[in-house]
Design goal:
Elements (H helix, E strand, L loop, with lengths): L16 H8 L2 H4 L3 E3 L2 E6 L9 H10 L9 H15 L6 H14 L22 E8 L5 E9 L4 E3 L16 H5 L2 H17 L3 H17 L6 H12 L1
Antiparallel strand pairs: 1-2, 2-4, 3-4, 4-5
Helix pairs in contact: 1-7, 3-8, 5-8
Length: 237
C-alpha cells in the first residue's frame, strides 16, 4: 500500500477564489512575502552574517551529508591548508567562494532564460509543471521578485509593475488577479507559500552551497589518511 505524503501545513491556503485573491493582495498575505515598487510578490533574500569560515563550513557539510572526514586529523589538516591556500590569499580570496555560492543560489531561481534551474521551483506539490520567471532587484540584488507565473497548459501571467494595474476601488482586486483563472490562481497561492518558506534563511542556503562547492570540488582530490596508507602499501607490493 502506497504511503500517503501529507502536504506541509504552511502550503495549505484558502480554496475559495475570493479568499485566495484577498490573501494574495492583503497585508496578511504580505507577511508571507513583501510588497515593493508595484511588485506584489517580492522576497527579502539579503545576506546578513554569512559565515564561510572553515570550521563552520565543515559543520554545515556534516549536517548536510556532504562527504567529509572530520575525525581524520590528517585529512582536516590538509583541507585547512587547501582552504588557506585558496581563499586566504591576501585576505580577499574568500570573496571567490562567496561569489560562486551566491551565483549558484541565484541560478536556482534565474537560470536559463530567467527561469529556475532548480526543478523544485518548476512544479507544484502534486508535480504539476509551472512556468515561473524571477528576477533580482535592489542595489545588492537583495530582493527576489516573481515576474511571471503560469500552470502547464494554461496562460502565463506577467506580474511586473506595468501589468499589475489596480482598480479605483480599494475593495476590488488588482486587474490581473480578477482575470486570472482559478487553476492558476490557486497554483500561484501554493507556489508563493512554497517559495516564501524556502527563502526564509538565505544565509543557510548559501552556506550549504559553499560547503558543497569547497569540499566536493576544491577538495575532491584530498585523500583520507587511510587511503594514503593503503596507497603506500599498494605501491610497496
Amino acid at each position: 500500500m502506497r504511503k500517503q505524503i501529507t502536504k506541509p501545513e504552511y502550503m495549505v491556503g484558502p480554496r475559495n477564489r475570493t479568499d485566495i485573491a484577498k490573501f494574495l493582495t492583503s497585508e496578511d498575505g504580505w507577511q508571507e512575502r513583501h510588497y515593493d515598487d508595484g511588485y506584489l510578490f517580492c522576497f527579502n533574500v539579503k545576506l546578513h552574517g554569512l559565515d564561510l569560515s572553515f570550521d563552520h563550513l565543515l559543520e554545515v557539510a556534516k549536517e548536510n551529508g556532504i562527504d567529509v572526514s572530520p575525525d581524520d586529523a590528517g585529512w582536516v589538516e590538509r583541507t585547512i591548508d587547501r582552504y588557506n591556500e585558496t581563499y586566504d590569499n591576501g585576505g580577499g580570496g574568500i570573496e571567490y567562494l562567496w561569489q560562486a555560492a551566491v551565483e549558484e543560489a541565484q541560478g536556482n531561481f534565474v537560470g536559463g532564460g530567467g527561469c529556475p534551474d532548480d526543478d523544485s521551483y518548476n512544479m507544484l506539490w502534486d508535480g504539476t509543471e509551472v512556468h515561473a520567471r524571477f528576477g533580482f532587484k535592489g542595489r545588492s540584488n537583495g530582493w527576489l521578485v516573481l515576474k511571471e507565473f503560469g500552470v502547464k497548459n494554461g496562460p502565463i501571467y506577467k506580474l511586473t509593475p506595468n501589468d499589475v494595474m489596480f482598480t479605483d476601488s480599494a475593495d476590488d482586486e488588482p486587474t490581473y488577479i480578477s482575470i486570472m483563472d482559478y487553476r492558476t490562481l490557486r497554483g500561484l497561492d501554493e507556489y508563493l507559500r512554497f517559495v516564501s518558506n524556502s527563502v526564509k534563511n538565505p544565509e543557510k542556503a548559501v552556506e550549504e552551497i559553499a560547503a558543497s562547492f569547497f569540499f566536493g570540488s576544491i577538495c575532491e582530490d584530498i585523500q583520507t589518511t587511510e587511503d594514503l596508507v593503503m596507497a603506500e602499501i599498494g605501491a610497496g607490493i
